[in-house]
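User: Please fill in residues for this 785-position structure.
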């Protein structure tokens, strides 16, 4: 651990993260191969387990601590520092004085234990620290990014993914992850779409629940788990123009029906913490937003955990033009309901004075401290503050994690096109050209958080995986083609190993282009691995255009013109503009950022050792001009079925290129026999929906049965379709299964802007069931008055 230093730029948070990440990465170089661990099954929490601590016991312990604490020590619990945050004091000094409740971005176990020792042995009340980190899609073993997890449509797999991530991070001393991100995103220009579950509140809520369960286990304090933190509360994904951090203007109706359900699901699943977002929501910054933090979160949902601000968001209330000065910012954030100030130390500097001048009462401070102390008690930190360093590598090196990473990556990829069954490829060819700037990149497979917390060392690229897959008789040739790059802050180069891609001169780029086309020209098949570098998606990574950047589109066209079979593999954190490819390239596979085993998973799918079964968690636009785009839009004055005046762009269709829920398989599926358990029911009743799905192909495969509804009339216009149920099923060739889903009050209510409350309305409904959001099997039912 090094002492504090002055960061050189505006991106000093990232620099600090880099320092810590590096420390962890270095530690990993000295890993010893460890014995294998118990089976994955054993890691999955058993339903029904309950916390060994009752609320009463926790409350008593919190009260007894509060009685002993000075005002300064209480404010300290509301303060989270990062070691390299610009500061006049060393972290140890602040911790010793009781000025720190939590530390973020530290991942090195020895460093964690050292700071914990200061808190537990050298501070007056010995209150342990809570260490938090962004464990988004893995800690040491990197799994597919959250958008890919959603594409699995498999919540059970997601529980397991985050259970394993929690296990690794917990072993290293982390007790709190800043995940899941449950922001709905309907505009793929927004870079953070990669961190969430996409556009849909129902799928988003299912993924939120699964991730909270995976991270936290059955109760707060479950062994080998973490506190979850649902973020960014709320509306962050609705940023104007898809620009990161920009204001969001979202009606209460849209908030309640679309943006909040995944947060509510996370809270209902027991998420111990939430993070307040950076941006203005309807002109009030989320970090000072009483409507969100009091009315919705605490009053309506009964949330009893604690809220942490996003990094420096308390201080930023001044930047927003909302708070007059930092003291006013501390006042507004605390009185709105933010318990913990991440990284800005604005609470530490100003809350004491606010109490002294009577603006804030001691009782208000205590109320904000309570859930933080309660979380530490439930985590068992007072009894077990330290982490066993000798155990860390054994956990991180367990082969099960890599096996699971492969399984997860295979389940998350989406096959978008497969004309004439060009896939799976035969290994009975003489040569394969593997082409593109992402074909031989390891770090870009991990996504931005994955490349930061994990490491690319030892990660097999797509090129290497293809080489390993095919027999020696097959010649595999590689050409990178022209580089793609984004102008990244120089500081990123320190953070993510390999993020700096050498800029080619125009002459070199031309040469690489020619070489790539030539390589494709003398091989039997071309696999083009195109898309986005890891740094092109995520925080601070919004784009004004979704095109295949750099020379990629041109290169693709030049290779296709050769007339060879071409397969396009997309590595990306968002849907890209592939309208041309969707007509001209016979096979397209969206691999997302698939994680440490992504190269192997891609090779498995390309050569038929795995069968793709993922489905899109977002509508795939035809071009950037269509965004925001989502399937659950309302009917218009002139729907597309109108004879005239039906188009909303005269130069482009309004439908997406690929609909929400879409994805192909090497198997074929047929849906039939849609049955409703009744055609009429009363308010509050349940309706059974069943459908037969059969694998009519010759290979085993997975289909996702999707159920959509439409309420035909009511106190508000309702979306043309809304997802209200799904199940991923595996079927052998010829096998048929009947899938049963249920529609009840939870699925049928909506927030009525007219009545300002949740309503279930006696109206007529459509039901569709099938393979995506354009499903054709249809039925009707009615809810009686
Ligand atoms: C800022 C990001 O917006 C948030 O998602 C993250 O959890 C924090 N930094 C901490 O790294």
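Assistant: Residues filled in for all 785 positions:
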């Amino acid at each position: 651990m090094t002492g504090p230093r002055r960061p050189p730029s505006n991106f000093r948070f990232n620099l600090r993260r880099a320092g810590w990440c590096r420390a962890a990465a270095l530690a990993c170089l000295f890993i010893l191969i460890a014995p294998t661990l118990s089976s994955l099954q054993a890691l999955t929490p058993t339903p029904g387990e309950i916390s060994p601590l009752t609320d009463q016991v926790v409350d008593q312990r919190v009260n007894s601590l509060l009685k002993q604490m000075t005002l300064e020590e209480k404010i300290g619990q509301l303060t989270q520092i990062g070691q390299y945050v610009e500061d006049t004091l060393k972290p140890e000094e602040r911790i010793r004085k009781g000025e720190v409740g939590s530390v973020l971005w530290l991942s090195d176990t020895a460093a964690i234990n050292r700071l914990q020792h200061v808190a537990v042995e050298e501070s007056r009340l010995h209150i342990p620290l809570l260490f938090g980190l962004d464990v988004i899609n893995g800690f040491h073993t990197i799994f597919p990014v959250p958008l890919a997890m959603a594409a699995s449509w498999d919540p059970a797999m997601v529980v397991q993914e985050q259970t394993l991530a929690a296990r690794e991070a917990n072993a290293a001393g982390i007790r709190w992850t800043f995940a899941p991100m449950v922001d709905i995103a309907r505009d793929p220009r927004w870079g953070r779409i990669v961190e969430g579950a996409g556009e849909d509140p129902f799928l988003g809520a299912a993924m939120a629940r699964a991730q909270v369960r995976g991270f936290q286990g059955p109760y707060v304090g479950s062994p080998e788990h973490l506190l979850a933190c649902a973020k960014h509360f709320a509306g962050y994904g609705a940023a104007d123009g898809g620009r990161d951090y920009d204001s969001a203007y979202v009606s209460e109706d849209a908030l309640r029906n679309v943006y909040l359900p995944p947060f509510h699901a996370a809270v209902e699943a027991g998420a111990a913490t939430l993070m307040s977002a950076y941006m203005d929501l309807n002109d009030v910054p989320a970090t000072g937003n009483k409507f969100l933090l009091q009315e919705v979160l605490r009053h309506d949902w009964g949330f009893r955990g604690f809220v942490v601000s996003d990094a420096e968001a308390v201080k930023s209330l001044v930047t927003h033009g909302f708070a007059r000065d930092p003291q006013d910012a501390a006042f507004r954030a605390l009185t709105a309901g933010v318990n913990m100030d991440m990284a800005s130390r604005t609470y530490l500097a100003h809350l004491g004075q606010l109490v002294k001048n009577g603006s804030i009462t001691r009782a208000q401070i205590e109320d904000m401290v309570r859930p933080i102390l309660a979380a530490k008690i439930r985590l068992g930190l007072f009894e077990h503050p330290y982490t066993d360093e000798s155990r860390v590598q054994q956990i991180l090196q367990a082969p099960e994690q890599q096996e699971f990473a492969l399984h997860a990556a295979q389940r998350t990829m989406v096959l978008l096109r497969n004309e004439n069954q060009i896939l799976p490829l035969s290994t009975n060819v003489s040569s394969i050209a593997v082409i593109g700037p992402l074909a031989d990149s390891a770090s870009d497979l991990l996504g931005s958080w994955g490349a930061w917390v994990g490491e690319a060392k030892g990660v097999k690229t797509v090129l290497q995986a293809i080489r390993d897959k095919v027999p020696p008789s097959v010649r595999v040739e590689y050409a990178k083609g022209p580089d793609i790059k984004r102008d990244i802050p120089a500081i990123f180069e320190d953070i993510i190993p390999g993020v700096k891609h050498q800029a080619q001169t125009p002459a070199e780029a031309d040469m690489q282009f020619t070489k790539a086309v030539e390589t494709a020209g003398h091989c039997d098949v071309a696999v083009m691995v195109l898309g986005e570098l890891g740094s092109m998606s995520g925080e601070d990574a919004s784009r004004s255009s979704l095109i295949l950047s750099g020379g990629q589109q041109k290169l693709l066209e030049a290779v296709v013109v050769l007339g060879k079979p071409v397969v396009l593999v997309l590595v990306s954190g968002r849907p890209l503009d592939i309208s041309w490819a969707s007509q001209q390239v016979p096979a397209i596979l969206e691999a997302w950022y698939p994680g440490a085993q992504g190269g192997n998973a891609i090779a498995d799918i390309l050569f038929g050792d795995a069968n793709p079964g993922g489905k899109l968690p977002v509508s795939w636009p035809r071009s950037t001009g269509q965004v925001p785009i989502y399937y659950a839009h309302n009917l218009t004055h002139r729907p597309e079925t109108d004879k005239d005046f039906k188009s909303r762009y005269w130069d482009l269709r309004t439908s997406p290129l690929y609909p929400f829920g879409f994805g192909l398989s090497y198997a074929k599926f047929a849906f039939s026999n849609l049955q409703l358990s009744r055609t009429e029911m009363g308010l509050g009743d349940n309706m059974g929906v069943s459908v037969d799905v059969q694998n009519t192909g010759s290979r085993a495969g997975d289909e996702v049965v999707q159920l959509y509804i439409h309420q035909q009339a009511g106190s508000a216009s309702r979306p043309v379709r809304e997802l209200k149920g799904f199940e991923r099923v595996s079927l052998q060739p010829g096998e048929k299964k009947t899938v049963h889903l249920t529609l009840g009050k939870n699925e049928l209510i909506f927030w009525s802007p007219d009545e300002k409350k949740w309503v279930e309305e006696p109206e007529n409904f459509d039901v569709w069931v099938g393979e995506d959001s354009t499903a054709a099997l249809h039925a009707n039912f009615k809810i009686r008055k």
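For context: The longest strand covers residues 701-711.
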